[in-house]
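Kindly review both lines to help learners:
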Amino acid sequence: MTTDMNLWLQDSGPAALTLREHLMPVEGPDGVLFPATFAASEDKTFKGGYNIDAFTDGTNICLVDSVGSQANRIEPIFMTGEYAALVPQVTIDAGRKINLLEAGHRAGDAIVRCSGLQEELQLAFKAAAKGNCEPLAKIAPTSCVFGAWDSRDTQTKLPRLIASTIRAYNVKELRRSAQYVPATEYVSDGLLDDPAGNKSVQEEYAKRGFIHVPASGAPGGVIATGGIRRDATLHLAALRTIFAEDETRTLALRKYILGLAVTAFTYLGSGYLRQGCNLVLDADKGREFKAVYPDGRREAVAVTHAEALAFAKAAATAFGVGPSRDVPFDKERAKADLSGDGTKKKAKAAKK
């Protein structure tokens, strides 16, 4: 039975959609995978490396791919093929063309803030702060799907409608060591001076590949004995809080954002996350797609990616996709932003 996605926009609809994918390394369930690594915390309570939370019962959970990283992997699909027609293709000319969909902070990114879109985006963010997301949806609709924070200007925050994270359970952490061997013995063969006793020169020789360099005890990946899982949530309750100028436009806006969100939500992208981490579906367990209602009911959802894309195309036509454009990066705006002049001028204008 085909699901009517329009029902998800009603107040009586689900609070959220959840998607659970059971994954494994391409080498098999006992294969080694390399999770994301993170820098040490300022207080050194986290010394850097893999983010593994250990519990008193002996179990642990390892973060393989974060919410932000997952969003940045999914969002660029809207630059390609038939997905590209669903959203404005806005590029910033900063010596090379940078699509807004590639910007790490989306509509709140510095590359956009210091471009010819600055004033238009300020107004759109201010409207979004009051719940009216139509102006922003005409420029950067995926910022309404994956979230954005205009932290350096209006302070407007848009929540993530889609949150996706990959975790590995009960991991065994491995270490790896290596030894770099130069093509010849540059010092003993008389090709270079002996750096003995001069630490800075020795370090430079090592950096440039002229002497043997051992590398011991580096992170060597993990084996997930408890499995690997991608858990994603599409927050329909949050989607139903956005509006436009009137009731008719509000429905068109919500349908448009829902179409984009469900298209992104059901997209099965490449499982190649980084060197040593290529994940695929566990065919024996597969995917679990549920609609979760406020009263706790969980119902299976049978919407396919093709159906989601068809809904998104119809919704985009009805809403009216904003114009695609190429805008220049403005060095003077960037200089003013760095010096704080731009902020001061905005504050002065607001006061007037």
Summary: Residues 346-352 have pLDDT under 50 and may be disordered. The CA atoms of residues 10 and 295 lie 15 Å apart. Residues 5-169+225-340 form one domain. The chain has two domains: 5-169+225-340, 174-219.
